[in-house]
Amino acid sequence: MQQTFETWITPIMIGGLILFMCFIIWDLAKKSQAGHFGTIMLFVVLGAGMLGYVFKVVITWMLENGNGV
């Protein structure tokens, strides 16, 4: 039961955290009046860490399921 709960809740909570961080980046861009280019750069630079985590999860899943190299 606990393992099933952890299997489901972990991706949901991490997904929620990523969405919250996206909101924080958007709010930062809005409050600093970054403009369109500045907002894009904030999402690219600050979102790179989140994207790296997502890539890690996808690559790990692929390797565990035999879809990897």
UniProtKB/TrEMBL annotation:
The source's superkingdom equals Bacteria
Q: What name does this protein carry?
A: DUF2788 domain-containing protein
Indicate whether Transmembrane helix appears among the record's keywords. yes
- This chain's source organism reads Halomonas gemina
User: Mind listing the UniProt keywords for this protein, alphabetically?
Assistant: Membrane, Transmembrane, Transmembrane helix
Q: Which residues cross the membrane?
A: 12-29, 41-63
Q: Which Pfam families match?
A: DUF2788
Which InterPro entries is this protein grouped with?
DUF2788
